Input
Amino acid sequence: MNELLKRVMAVVSRCMFFLVLFSVAQAVDTPVDANKIDEGYLVELPNKKDSDILAIYTMADEPTKTDGNVMASSTDEFGYHPITYDTAYVNITNNLDEGIHVYGEFRQSCKLRYLGDVHQMSTKVLYMDTRWKLQIAIYSKDDTIQYCRLYYHFGEEGRYTYFVNRNTSTSSGVECTKPITINREPQDANIPIYIALAVYGGFALVYIFIAAGIRDGWFDKILCCFSTDHLVTNELGSPETASHVPPASDRNSINRQQPSKPKRLKSLDTFRGISIVLMILVNYGGGKYWFLVHARWNGLTVADLVFPWFVYIMGVSMTLSFHALVKYKVPRSKMMYKIIKRTIILFALGCVLNSGNSITYFRVPGVLQRFSISYLVVASLQWISATPERHAPKMMNKYYKPFCDILDYWYEWLLMAALMIVYSCLTFLMPIPGCPTGYIGPGGPLIGVNGSLTNCTGGAANYIDRWILGVNHIYQHPTVKIVYLTEMPHDPEGVLGSITSIFITFLGLQAGKILLLFQQHGERLRRLLIWGVVLGGIATLLCYGSKENGWIPINKNLWSTSFVLCNAGTGFILLAFCYFTIDVKNWWSGAPFYYPGMNSILLYAAHGLFANNFPFSWQPLDNTHSELIAMHLIATSLWVALSYHWFRIKFFLKI
Output
């Protein structure tokens, strides 16, 4: 039965492999349209009196009715996304004898944006975003009087009505209905997620049942009940067991102790697999759920975890790798050659994958480029400090041992501290032409007085990128463009953020030292959890536990200090969980994430190369959460199946 199951899995995986080869052929023949790049970057604002209304920026044309609630507009009023998901329908009913203006925004710190006007004694339907709590303001036709302001979190597919009525008893002579009228209750947008979790949970239970049946021989016993061979065996005995006795020499050879191979840390490969699977799901779109896409500026989503986790895991692996190289007396020159070679390959591969074919707008920074820089610095540091064995007397000292993973490498910590001081000084003390010193916000015309922050996106990080790399050679379509109406390009993998990326790699190196220096499971787990809690606590203090109001907000676009500390803290905790359940208790084999974790570089390169090819994607029919999350989960699952096939045939891409 076990052999039959393996053959079935082999056939399925081979079919998937040839399907990918077919997709490769299609990808080679399919032309790719280059994205249009705006020629101008500096936004000149008209010289107007500043207020909390920015009427000159209209995010969407006035929607027109075609049939009931079916609207011709393709996006919500802010232009964030299509109306097929994360959209509520809000009727603004004007019962006045004059027209009104409607403004809205989801951040209280930003100017209100013009959403449209409603004529006297009429109703206008607005498509409102449902991901965040919104504010809607009703103003007079000449924008001199604010009639009312509503703060409300709308629900997907909900139908609402907001009445604006005449009331002479109020100061403005107008009142709006409170609470807002709900015409149809909203739907739970997360139902497709619940269904997907149930489906994958069912697959997991079936896998566990089949694996247990094969391991304990259930299927053999069941098949044995339907055969007649066991009757003969019971009555006459098995001729093989009676006659075949291995010679003494063979028995001795079997029982002879074989040299043991070094045990691979399965939990680390599983952690890496979790990260690459989440990265593929996020890069494919994550069903367009807000928590599976990157935060527009400040904040943290699931999508923001995967890249820093990868960098952290690289640091953990680096410790174990260098320990093995030193143990087997690999020459130092050969180690440095490997470091330089891998750095060049990673950087070059990153340039090939994400820079396109435009020389004018060739993007220099990128994900693999960030990997290569972090690897070069931290690996060189480890190359200097790696030693074969530690001194036993120091380890026996009860006061020294709890801090040996730090005290033995005090000079590394000094270097990291110096780098973080340089990063902080450049971020908060470096003068930026035309911008406040220390500004780390998104910039754009919606923030600041009279457009004072229009060209200040990213502060020092953006300024350094434009100064070193040039404005044309950084990412031209940052996530803040739609939300904050910015025109400045900004690269989340820029030069300044490489310093904090180096630091989180070093924290991963620290986790690897814990696994090397402490031999007891309890010691390892306690230290991993303590590091996770301490780093998470520091990150919480830096951001004040708030999205916008902290001293140093959590920000993936800048790789802020709080961002890397938060991700390193979750990395320590998740590594401890995987280590406990996989390597200590053997409750979990690491499947299915173990297989992608063994081939993460290949999966990263391949999934991006075939992202627009069937069966990894297709043109959506309804473009809803249900259809999109199904498509993205199917694509991710196919890559997991391929990674299992590559694991079985022992095909691994190593750099």
The two ends are 38 Å apart (CA to CA). The longest strand covers residues 87-94.
